[in-house]
Amino acid sequence: MNELKIKLSNSYHTPHKYSQRILTFWIGLYVKGMKFSRLWLPNGKLIENYREDPGPYLFLRWAGMKTTFEYCAPRKNWVTMFSCEGLEVTNGGSNLVLNWNDHQFELPVNLPVSDSMLPVYRNRFQEMTQKYNSGLPKNIFCAELMLLNLLETMLNSSSSPNMASPVEKFKKLIDDDKKFEYNISEFSEMCGFSKDYLRLLFQQTYHISPKEYQNNKRMTMIVELITKTDISLKEIAFLAGLKNITHLNYLIKKKYDLTPGQLRTLQIS
């Protein structure tokens, strides 16, 4: 316990827009209220770019990161700042690992929280914050034990049955992107894991690459709009996240050896 010390623990409920450089370890719970949030690694790489509410998640941050965000009402999130000798930032500031004996265990940046588990984590953060801010030694000790338990949750996240796994969160982001606004790299950043790691997990879990899965969803929508509506091809290209009709023509020609117009006429006839 001497290796881990809470420095500050608070809940945040008011609208706020701010940018800051992170100076120590953070663990937190986001519930609601986000308008946007961006997060950079110490090396300047953007790894999080939420442009809408992503849903509840646990998060870890470390010294050297930079964050900029805006929250509106109703806002609800918790942040606990702490020090821990067992945690180490590696790979030029890109990864956070827990050192134990001769082993290193990587911790995620963000961890989605399911609806069923949200009340549990909300109560844990609320109780931890209250105990720490009481100023009583026994309560502070209990708060630090609760922090250890939260770190264990982050460490065991990939095997937890009660919250969305990283690959499930990854797939949900692809499924929810109805306008095809984001690419696979951006989805990976939103999940807090590397693109290569999530691509491997996705392939192992769903037996298809995430890029192919996204392209299949796009093509399904395109064909449905062409064959079942009279929407212009220009608008269909826009709805499918394509730059122009030329790209639309290319995709249809490659898959069906037809132009979009021929596919529409064939379906009508």
List keywords for this structure.
single chain, 269 residues, alpha+beta, Jelly Rolls, Arc Repressor Mutant, subunit A, 2 domains, 3-stranded antiparallel sheet, 10 strands
Summarize the entry for a quick read.
This protein has helices at residues 118-133, 137-155, 166-176, 184-191, 195-206, 210-228, 233-239, 245-256, 260-268; strands at 4-12, 16-21, 25-40, 46-50, 57-61, 66-84, 87-90, 95-100, 103-107, 110-112. With 269 residues, it is α+β, with helices and mostly antiparallel strands.
Question: Layout of helices and strands, plus pairs?
Answer:
Elements: E1 4-12, E2 16-21, E3 25-40, E4 46-50, E5 57-61, E6 66-84, E7 87-90, E8 95-100, E9 103-107, E10 110-112, H1 118-133, H2 137-155, H3 166-176, H4 184-191, H5 195-206, H6 210-228, H7 233-239, H8 245-256, H9 260-268
Helix pairs in contact: 1-2, 3-4, 3-5, 6-9
Q: Could you explain how this protein is built, in words?
A:
This protein is of the alpha+beta class and 269 residues long. The protein is elongated and about 75 Å long. About 2% of the residues have low confidence. Strands 1, 2, 3, 4, 5, 6 and 10 form a 7-stranded antiparallel sheet that branches. Strands 7-8-9 form a 3-stranded antiparallel sheet, with no helix packed on it. 42% of the residues lie in helices and 29% in strands. The longest helix is centred in the middle third of the chain and has 19 residues. The chain folds into 2 domains: 156 residues, Jelly Rolls (Sandwich), CATH 2.60.120.280; 105 residues, Orthogonal Bundle (Arc Repressor Mutant, subunit A), CATH 1.10.10.60.
